[in-house]
Amino acid sequence: MISYAVWLYFRFPLSLRMVEELLAARGILVSHESVRQWAMKIGQSFAKQIRRRLPASGDKWHLDEVAISIAGKKHWLWRAVDQHGAVLDILVQSRRNAKAAKRLLRKLLKKQGIAPRVMITDKLASYAAAKREVMPGVEHRQHKGLNNRAENSHQPTRRRERIMKRFKSAGQAQRFLSVHDQVANLFRRSTHSKAADHRRARARAFQAWTEITGVVTVA
């Protein structure tokens, strides 16, 4: 039941109270605060296990940053995805400069263990400055039209931001999105996949989720 509640919360654009109501419809009476506590306590553990199970990332990284409002102040959500649309990592920061870009690149290299063949960004000069220092041998393409994959990856975050009535702190945004994006990776549907292929991929995702959580996912 707990893993089901956590799956609902991170997989779909639902508020805590919506999850509470969906559980109540199944005869499971818990408070939205319980759902929040479950998400906080075990969400990161699930995300780490998902990350270990996913295939190796692609060799082309798309990086982008988008402004988000937290407690009335502008912050920047930096996100990297590969050419297949899988989210590699995110980082919530208060700055949009070379230092912030370097933090993202170093975090990515630490997590991925290898530099990409190509890095694609918009024309923000901070990326070029950071790349020269952190990944000097990587090809860097700067063109807004090439980076639609990274820009599109922000859309689910925008939907969650509206449902949650904005993030309460940078830490909360970082913790939530770190789990949210990994769950999305596990259940991600390829844009051009056929229905039969999608059903097989979804079955594999549910099997992985079952193994990660140790219980059968409710259908």
Automatic annotation (TrEMBL):
GO BP: DNA recombination; transposition
Domain DDE residues, every copy: 59-189
GO molecular function: DNA binding
Domain of life: Bacteria
Keywords: DNA recombination, DNA-binding, Transposition
Protein name: IS6 family transposase
Organism: Microvirga aerophila
